[in-house]
Protein: NAD-dependent epimerase/dehydratase domain-containing protein
Amino acid sequence: MKVIILGASGFVAFPIAQAFARAGHIVYGTTRSAENAKALARDEILPIVCDATNDEGRALWGKEAETADLIIDAIPSTTGAAPALATFKYASAISDGRPVGAKITYIYTAGAWTQSRGPAGLAAWTSDTQPHSGRVGLTTWRWGVEKEVLSSNAVNGIVIRPTLLYGKAGSLYSLFYFPAALAAAQKGETFEAVAHPDFRLANIHPDDLADLYLRVGERGPLLKGQTFVGSNQASERATDLLDAIVRVSGAKGYTIRPPSNAFEEAFCSSIVVKPSLGNALTGWTPKKPSLVDGIDVYWASYLAHQE
Structure:
């Protein structure tokens, strides 16, 4: 297949691009940075240096999209639906003139915060086929984008909702927990962590997530209209993770404070999820140890990325 990955140098997208390239596909990836373009090229990913969300950038990757089989939108977005919808409509216009059976498969990367329903009990449980809960205000706009993608007749529209990523450089854990723990360990102190006492984590390793994208992308025409949650099977308490971080970091302990803004509230929104469609329809099974179980490995990787 010919694959175009928008935002290919990002924490989510780069492993996805690598997975498709290793599987033998021709992969193009957009990035804003000439330096990141070199990193893509080293992994046999053909770089397109542009802002993929503006008219000039769309014109650049759009030339390749005219003969593409698959487009993956993995551009991080906190600015609302407009950029994602404009990108989708541009790709749809390219695909719309193709005959049935030759439509572009379009995978939109959403997020699992949209499915948060609370920390425990059957009322909090969710899965791939559950609709948005509306609980996390920061991400309510995503539902409008998902509906456009899933209902489109111009493309084979698919949505993947990753949960929190862990491993490698650390993702959001390198923002909220790991740096504070490292600094506290160096000073022999405790660190402060944002969390709710009953906050439960749903996580996915980037390599496992990339495998889901690969399996779904290769089956795109068969999976039109489906939504997949990218998560492992573990449901971990934030306090269990913080205890594990104390052990591997050498910090003296931690104190918990409540979220103080919308982004922190979203981070602390519990997701109790058991994804099933990825396995049932593609055979996908995450292989990496969970965040708490593999914390020694993931902490060492985080430290290596700080050098």
